[in-house]
Amino acid sequence: MNEPVLTIVVPCFNEEEVLEETNKRLRAVLQHAVHDHLAAHGSTILYVDDGSKDRTWDLISRFIRDYADVTGVKLSRNFGHQNALIAGIESSRPYSDCVVTIDADLQDDVNTITKFLEKYQEGYDIVYGVRDKRDTDTFFKRNTALLFYRIMDKLGVKMVPNHADFRLLDRRVLNEFVKYQEENVFLRGMIPLLGFRSTKVYYNRAERYAGKSKYPLKKMLNFAIDGITSFSIAPIRMVTYLGMGVAGIGFLAALYAVIQKILGHTVTGWSSVILSIWLIGGLQLIATGVIGEYIGKIFKETKHRPRYTIEKQTLADQHTAFTRRAL
Predict the structure, then answer these.
(1) Is 154 buried (19+), middle (13-18) or exposed (0-12) by CB count in 10 A?
(2) 146: alpha, beta or left? (left if phi > 0; alpha if psi -120 to 50)
């Protein structure tokens, strides 16, 4: 297999504290890959600034000026991690034989990219980076993540457990991926849907090098809900079954009341009435919320708005110049 042109896509949101070290490590890995003939001259690192409010874009701009193998895309505002990844993937696709996506916080081991490329040379189209351990996560995050994977598996959604968005994708995979144009994006579920020959590479996940996590509890919950509702209608079916069950209980309660009336044993019960009202009311609100979640997704899809807007990009011009120098 010929040496592939590799692009390492790095989404960034307020990462000024870590970006210097990230760039240093990624450039070292890229240079070694080129030296070892795992990647071709002209391979690059693409930073995607997802509407950062700090000096992230200033640093990226400096990297672009100082290093020929660094490029950048600046989004006009914060579109979210998944859309920033897609912006990088779609921007680099015309110039790449394969793409590696990795977060900027250095929790994923950048040296694993070498193993990705070795697997790619063996003929794999998708290589997943999978955490060997979750020792760096809190007890709550570790167990809720495992619960999420179990739920997704029960719902019939194909996912790779303990895999985030650290992966390698071949050009053929990229060409098929861009055909998926839905507004509600959940890459960890979309990529396995594509098929193709895939494998896993295990690595130890480190602590965040610097800065704060961009996934607090609220974002993690929203991410999980998006994942479930984007790939399964099981929650709506569960609401249906729940409604049928409650209706059955209501029928039995009504039958019991009629029998008690006939027997003359009726006693006015304030507690039972209040409890019934709260139970039914709560179930109705849950059902409305679940259905509303799906209606909201339909609403977003029908608008057909772009996933992201690029304010600045240097990829095309810089890639051409770098390729010419390499030749």
Answers:
(1) exposed
(2) alpha
pTM to 2 decimal places: 0.71
Distance CA 278, CA 280 (A): 6
| Domain extents in the chain | 6-216+306-326, 234-303
CATH tag, 6-216+306-326: 3.90.550.10
Q: Within a 10 A sphere around the Cβ of 30, how many other Cβ atoms? A: 25
Q: Are 187 and 83 in contact (CB under 8 A)?
A: no
* Per-residue pLDDT tens over the stretch 205-243: 777 656 565 555 566 666 666 666 666 666 766 776 777
Give the alpha-carbon dihedral of 256, 262, 266, 270, to 10 degrees.
Answer: 50
The pLDDT value given to residue 102:
93
Strands 98-101 vs 6-12: parallel, antiparallel or unpaired: parallel
**Strand, helix or coil for residue 99:** strand
Other CB atoms within a 10 A radius of the CB of residue 297 amount to 16
Coil, helix or strand at residue 132 = coil
Mean pLDDT of the chain: 78
Find the distance separating the first CA and the last CA of the chain, reported in whole Å: 20
Main-chain phi, psi angles of 195, to 5 degrees: 80, -140
pLDDT for the residue 220? 63
| pLDDT at 318 (0 to 100) | 53
For the chain, which residues score pLDDT lower than 50?
322-327
Contact 47, 314 (CB under 8 A): no
Helices (H), 178-314: 187-193, 217-231, 234-263, 270-303
Contact 98, 196 (CB under 8 A): no
